[in-house]
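Notes from hallway chat w/ T.B., transcribed later so I don't forget. T.B. wanted the structure written out for a chain they're using in a teaching module, and asked if we could keep both sequence and structure tokens in one place. Agreed to drop them here.
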Amino acid sequence: MEKKSTGGGQIGAELKGKYLLVTPAKNEEQNLPEVSKAVIEQELKPELWIIVDDGSTDETPSILEGLRSNWPWIRSIRLPPRPRDITFHYSYVCKQGFDYALEYCRENNIEFEYIGLLDADTVLEENYFGKLLAEFKKDNSLGIVSGGVYYDTNGKLSLEVTAKNLPRGTGRIWKKECFFETGGYQVEPSPDSISNIKALLRGWRLMQYTEAVQVQKRKTSAANGLWNGYLKNGWMAYYLGKNYFMTLLNVFHLSLKSPYYTGIAYCWGYFGSVIKRENKIQDPEVRAYYRNQGFGGLLSRISSNFDQNSRNVKEKKQ
């Protein structure tokens, strides 16, 4: 037996949970058709999908026009052209999408329980959101969950191994209460890390459920090239107030895997900011969180990371 959702079409009766989805997109004509096809074919579709066109100069606007005309639960907004930026501007683009989605739901009486974020280079398996929402049903304390990020190499999927208790930035979904309790989506560098911290400090549990597969079409932080991406990542680590030990650990970890120069870029981004005495985040919760991370806690994280990384990458047939 099937029922009709408010926005996303027909779903199986056993799949419960209504969610909104926001996607930032800039010059994604190569990826957006496949990404949108995967969302449209989800077994559990969003009530509303807002795609934010960040001033694209390719065929992205015409692709969005086609999506809007064929699927009434897909809407888009367009921002003025600006250079691509993974720091403040990326979070600003996402925030515009969240604000628009929430206002649209209020005006049109659309109910939802969860709020999701999906980058425009990430292709989902067909029951991706169904799997994630099932995890929420198992644990009322779960505040944020994502699937695992995989890369397709010659028909095989390899998992990008990160801390298993931390959701990825793309393909993540918040319980609505957690999203609002943690202040929504912050216009700051590394907004996913900030959201994670604020959720943990309020007693929410976080999860990366790697059985839910999302295939990323380019490497993390590679939109402007890996060197520039990891240079920015190093700066963001400084901006958030991460300590020297944690930073050197990340540099060491990055330097052990190809491409090896990402560790150098990360190191340069962080310690260059130290030398310049650049500004840091003013949020007292985030500053205190990183300041109070003890040596024992860091050792525990090191052990966990190396236990995962010793297995290198997990491979599956697509």
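Follow-up for T.B.: Residues 226-309 form one domain. Might be a good example for the class.
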